[in-house]
Automatic annotation (TrEMBL):
It is a multi-pass membrane protein. The chain crosses the membrane at residues 6-23, 35-54. It comes from Nymphaea colorata (pocket water lily). PANTHER family: LEPTIN RECEPTOR-RELATED, RH04491P. Its main location: membrane. InterPro entries: Vps55/LEPROT. It comes from the Eukaryota. Keywords: Membrane, Transmembrane, Transmembrane helix. This is Uncharacterized protein.
Length: 60
């Protein structure tokens, strides 16, 4: 399961960054839409990192 999780995480990360950039390069979406997608990905990454940090602490 660990390999599958790493693969899906990598595919999600690449897709979340590459797909909006490719669509913007092809002029199918506006620059603002691309930055909104990048911002949502950044918020998701911060949420996952915060959850991981909290789950490592023994006080919880």
């Amino acid at each position: 399961w660990m390999d599958a999780a790493k693969f899906l995480t990598g595919a999600s990360a690449v897709g979340s960054i590459a797909i909006p950039a490719i669509l913007r390069h092809a002029n199918l979406i506006e620059t603002g839409a691309m930055f909104i997608e990048f911002t949502s990905f950044f918020i998701l990454v911060c949420t996952v990192l915060c959850f991981h940090k909290v789950s490592l602490e023994e006080d919880w």
